[in-house]
Input
Amino acid sequence: MDNNIRIEVKDVNFYYGKKSALQNVSMDIKKNKITAIIGPSGCGKSTLIRLFNRMNELIPNTKMEGTINLDGENIYSSKIDVVEVRRQIGMVFQKPNPFPKSIFENVAYGLRVNGIKDKKYIREKVEKSLKNAAIWEEVKNRLFDNALGLSGGQQQRLCIARALAVEPEVLLMDEPCSALDPTSTRKIEELVLDLKKKYTIVIVTHNMQQAARIADYTAFFMMGDLIEYDITDKIFTKPSKKVTEDYITGRFG
Amino acid sequence: MQIHFDQELKKLKEKVLKMAALTEGAIRLSIEALKNKDKDLAKEVIRADSEIDRIELEIEEKSIELLATRQPVAIDLRFLTTGMKINSELERIADLAVNICQRVLQIADKPLVKPLVDIPKLAILARRMVKDTIDAFVNKDKGLAKKVILSDSEADKLRNSIYFELIDDYIAKDGSCGRQAVPLILISRHLERICDHATYIAEDIIYMIEAKIVKHHRDKLKGNQ
Output
């Protein structure tokens, strides 16, 4: 297997009941790169990234075909522990969703549910994660305040810190900036660019400029089909398919 | 979708074409002024250049506004950035037509040192190259753009033959004809520079059509016509 590939998607089909949401999707997600998934609403982009940490199986009456490998291992194999998959592949959502607990406890939560009790270790890990999520300086003097008192942008970075605390290999981000102002968006984008040194990042976004700014690779989906997947510069200067060009230039539909 | 933006791009393209038409006109008239030693016409070309400068600024400001507000990508981005480059190249071409007219004013009161033979040939080539680049832009014709790029060496050859003839056969033999001969050398230089700018436009047009940068890599054009 190519050592530069973190996630390998092979011939994946996905159905909500009888409705097909993804058809024959195959793609390789490269290690330590940012991959953006773009496409119109309902094209299957969120469905795809939720398959990467087996979140779709929480939805009743769904069916998946094909394989998804993480570092060469099929994450849908019966031998695999789903909790371990979700530790390895963290996720950040569209709307910041901190727990109604202190800033500290939000980040420590994942460690505690993973059975870690060593207080010193937890303290160090919380600090490191908050630093990695570029929010430490803003919260270091109020770690025990309720996280819901933070601004939207800070809450989102806290959620990133929470995801990082359990040391995932992949970070999935489902429109992480759509509820944020331009300043917070810029901070998250800077953070994502820093994080790719350590993590593989897959980001779903409706913001074309965001994909163009931060992603190394961009995949364009439409109606469950992977239409084009290429280096981001190529997608935004000279896409191969007319339909991709129509979508990114806003002439679609 | 994108109807307003499409209309703005169309308006911008029309403005670039207007700029191109005025520039082509300036070259044509500057050559007429030279052939007929027509000082009034030369002055008219010099005066009319301010209109070309005005349109150049309009195109530049509108392009920057569209880049900032529309954040174009793909073909829209390539069209806008190419349009901006074509705009400045056309403005420089128009300035060279003005330079030709300034030389005409220097030599118009005395007889020419020799009948004009190669300069009109170079002038025809320069006009044709400018016209072809504009046609290539309008029709997204990469074949025509490549033809322009490959014509550039012909312009260099003509300029050299004008240089050597005027220096070796006239200035070297009779230094007193320098005042009349040097402006002709400069005119051949201005015409050859017009051909260079037409070539730069053609290179930008190939980028617009194919997203392939051929500037400084003319070898990329070979075998791909």
